[in-house]
Specification:
Elements: H1 2-8, H2 11-36, H3 41-61, H4 66-90, H5 95-118, H6 141-160, H7 162-170, H8 172-177, H9 182-223, H10 227-252, H11 257-275, H12 281-310, H13 320-327, H14 332-340, E1 344-348, E2 358-362, H15 364-381
Antiparallel strand pairs: 1-2
Helix pairs in contact: 2-6, 2-9, 2-10, 3-4, 3-5, 3-9, 4-5, 4-9, 6-9, 7-9, 9-10, 9-11, 10-11, 12-14, 12-15
Organism: Halomonas halophila
Protein name: Metal ABC transporter permease
Family: Belongs to the ABC-3 integral membrane protein family.
Length: about 375
């Protein structure tokens, strides 16, 4: 405990944890809108498009001035987003194709500029390529304040334009019919995702930032059916994943912070996809198992009803082996469950009739249930 407290008092770790929490907050909130608008690739595009801005900011400032670098990243990320919007509106390209074009062109430009900078005689160029994968340990208190300012601006815009963003996200055509400036609102949402990318460059880098935009929103979507709950939960998941990744990096000594942050959030995504009530894979498997069991019971029940109808005897007693032969497998488990439900009963065979002395027959409730099942199947078939 003492060692953990001393670790938490470390100046560098405090900066990293604060930056990671801010990154998780803004990524979780804005990522929800990107995911719901089916633009999950948008974060990937703008994070890669931020690389030429990083390089241009370095060239203009003449060194690693964080304000210039982040401003350049914001400008080129926004340009990539606007390029995507123009391509989709002025041509027949689909959104995914436009995103792919913007991503490849801007990232290629960034690699060219990065190569150019590496050939310059500038002593501060070292480590500039860390923006590809992030360098959280280099985060300064001044950087945290810049990230906090950007996050505050983004959250304020979301709060002020919440109703408009919500309407554009779920029904852009209806929003346009109400007279809302849908194009400008979509452009603003896209620009805000670029803000989130700018916040994350120092922490997780260009390559991994896309996962930070998508993962908290995807995890939150599994647990919530309303946008308000989804946004709140995504922000909490993003912040928790960021802080946990920073702590794991500090405790492991040597493992990069950015990838650990992404892995922490991704672990929440996997757990959510597996265990979220009503949506998780485990619940889906349970529903399928219950459905198969219910179907087997219905099949056995209608088989007994059909045998009784064929023999024109509503209390016809069927042997266990006869029922098994109809279904090609053992049906005792299904019959026992039907018996507990009061739909069948285990009765004595008629006197003098060959075969087993005890057999299965439908109860009045069982006949009514079998007739209901058959009627519903007939209606579905019709």
């Amino acid at each position: 405990m003492a060692s953990l407290l001393s670790l938490l008092n470390d100046y560098t770790l405090q900066n990293v944890m604060a930056g990671a929490a801010l990154l998780g907050l803004i990524s979780g909130v804005l990522g929800c809108f990107a995911v719901l608008r089916r633009q999950s690739l948008l974060g990937d595009t703008m994070s890669h498009a931020a690389l030429p801005g990083v390089c241009l900011g370095f060239i203009i400032a003449g060194g690693r001035h964080m304000g210039s670098i982040l401003t350049g990243a914001l400008v080129t990320g926004a340009l990539a987003a606007l390029t995507m919007l123009l391509l989709t509106r002025l041509s027949r390209l689909k959104t995914d194709a436009a995103l792919g074009i913007a991503l490849s062109v801007f990232f290629a430009l960034g690699v060219v500029l990065l190569t150019h900078i590496q050939g310059m005689n500038n002593a501060s160029q070292g480590g500039l390529d860390a923006f590809l994968f992030g360098q959280a340990a280099a985060t300064l208190r001044a950087d945290v304040w810049i990230m906090a300012g950007i996050t505050a601006i983004a959250l304020a815009l979301v709060a002020v334009l919440w109703k408009e963003f919500k309407l554009v996200t779920f029904d852009a055509e209806f929003a346009a019919s109400l007279g809302l400036p849908v194009v400008w609102l979509e452009a603003l949402l896209t620009m805000m995702v670029a803000l989130a990318v700018v916040v994350g460059l120092q922490m997780v880098g260009v390559v991994l930032m896309a996962a930070m935009i998508i993962a908290p929103a995807v995890a939150a979507r599994q647990w919530s059916r309303r946008l308000e709950g989804m946004v709140t939960l995504a922000a909490l998941i993003g912040m928790a994943g960021g802080v946990l990744g920073a702590l794991l990096s500090a405790l492991s000594r040597g493992l990069a912070t950015g990838p650990l942050i992404i892995l922490s959030v991704s672990a929440v995504v996997l757990l959510s996809i597996a265990l979220a009530p009503g949506r998780g894979l485990a619940w889906e498997a349970l529903r399928l198992w219950r459905g198969r069991r219910r179907l087997r019971q219905q099949q056995v029940l209608t088989t007994l009803y059909g045998l009784a109808a064929r023999h024109e005897d509503p209390v016809f007693r069927s042997e266990q082996g006869l029922i098994d032969s109809y279904h090609g497998l053992r049906t005792r488990t299904a019959l026992r469950k039907l018996e507990r439900r009061g739909l069948v009963e285990w009765g004595e065979a008629p006197p003098g009739e060959p075969g087993p002395s005890r057999r299965w027959l439908l109860t009045p409730a069982g006949r009514a249930e079998a007739e209901r099942v058959l009627a519903s199947l007939y209606e579905e078939g019709a």
